[in-house]
C-alpha cells in the first residue's frame, strides 16, 4: 500500500492502492508518518501515487467509522512540514479531501495536466484538518481558500498553477524525472546545509 525507497539521499514514498483511487486507511496514514522518520543523510523526500489518481482522501468505509476526523491526518502533515530536507509532492493525478494535508505541507508541488483539486468538507459536514486552512491561505489567499473549502469547487491544474496551489504542471511521462531533477543540488550538499537553507526560507 505504501512503498518506501531510499536511494542516494532521496526518500521516495508511493501510495499504491489503485483499485480504491489511492484512498487512505488509518494503517496507511500511520505507515506514511512512520516512513518520514528518514535517515540523517536524507536530503529530499518525494511523495507520489500510482495510477491516475494521487489520492481520493479517506477510505469511505473507514471515514464513516471515524477516520475523517482522526488526528492521524494532522500527525502526518505536521511530520511532513517539519522535515528538515526538501519535500516534493509529485501529484500524478487528482488530489482530494484529507490527502490535501500532506501535499500542502510539502515544499514544492508538481502536478499532471489532468489533476483536479477539491476538498469537500463543507458538503460532507466535516472540518478540515487543523493546519490545512492556514497553509492553503498562505499559498492561494483567503478568498481562493474559501472557494475550495467553503464553495467546494474542483480546481483544474492550470487554475491551481495560476493561484499558486501548485508550482509546475508536468507531463505524466516526465513527472518523476522532473521531481528528481529538483533534488539534484540537494543530494550533492551536506544534510546540515540543506536543513539550514530550508529553515531560512521557512522563516522568511
Question: How would you summarize what this structure contains?
Answer:
This protein has 204 residues and is α/β, with parallel strands linked by helices. The protein has eleven helices and ten strands.
Describe this structure in words.
- The chain is of the alpha/beta class and 204 residues long.
- The protein has one domain: 2-enoyl-CoA Hydratase, Chain A, domain 1 (Alpha-Beta Complex), CATH 3.90.226.
- Helices cover 41% and strands 20% of the residues.
- It is built from eleven helices and ten strands.
- It has a six-stranded mixed β-sheet with strand order 1-2-3-5-7-10, sandwiched between helices.
- Strand 2, helix 1 and strand 3 form a beta-alpha-beta unit.
Give me the secondary-structure topology.
Blueprint: E1 2-7, E2 10-15, H1 26-35, E3 44-49, E4 53-55, H2 60-64, H3 72-81, E5 86-91, E6 94-96, H4 100-104, E7 108-111, E8 116-118, H5 121-124, H6 132-140, H7 142-149, E9 155-156, H8 157-163, E10 168-169, H9 175-182, H10 184-187, H11 191-203
Parallel strand pairs: 2-3, 3-5, 4-6, 5-7, 6-8, 7-10
Antiparallel strand pairs: 1-2, 8-9
Helix pairs in contact: 1-3, 6-7
